[in-house]
Amino acid sequence: MSTGEGPGYVDVDKHTMQHVRHPNVFSLGDAGSASNPKTGAAIRKQAPVVAEDVDSYLKNEQLGGMYHGYASCPLVVSDKKMLLAAFDYSLEMTPTFPTWLMDPSNQHRRYWHLTRYRLPFPYWNLMLEGIARHRRR
């Protein structure tokens, strides 16, 4: 999994996703140089930041959106069990779901079912279409 370091990435500020030399350019997801893992969960958190910051830039206002490096990586650990590693730039655990529901430090069959059966529909039909709602943390 690439973290976006090295040649070929759009050189952005990792919090605003704004290009470091060309202020009218923003980038996110796999194209940006932010040092987070390139995951769908990360871009889901980056997109609202970029939208807010582009709007602020066009209005000649100070950028207010901040991306903190959130990423969520499913890790298969056994037959039909997974961990869902979710963290930010500081490598602090930032659980995707409430810890009382699913402790992210333990493997769960529910994570496997979630990734296998529940997430494909919203990913392909809502997130990629720009319809999925975003929750700010």
How would you portray this structure in words?
- The chain is an alpha+beta fold.
- The protein folds into two domains: 1-68, no CATH class; 71-127, no CATH class.
- The protein is built from three helices and two strands, in the order αββαα.
- It has helices spanning 40-58, 109-118, 120-127, and strands spanning 71-78, 81-87.
- A hairpin with a 2-residue loop joins strand 1 and strand 2.
- The longest helix is centred in the middle third of the chain and has 19 residues, at 40-58.
- The mean pLDDT is 83.
Would you spell out the secondary-structure blueprint of this structure?
Layout: H1 40-58, E1 71-78, E2 81-87, H2 109-118, H3 120-127
Major beta sheet summary: 2 strands, antiparallel
SSE string, helices as H and strands as E: HEEHH
| Unreliable spans | none
Query: Strands across the major sheet, in which order?
Result: 1-2
Strand content: 5-15%
What's the shape? elongated
Helical percentage: 25-40%
How many β-strands, per DSSP? 2
Q: Compute the CA-based radius of gyration.
A: 16 Å
| Average pLDDT score | 83
For the record, give the distance between the C-alpha atoms at the N and C termini, rounded to a whole number.
Answer: 25 Å
Which structural category fits the helices and strands?
Answer: alpha+beta
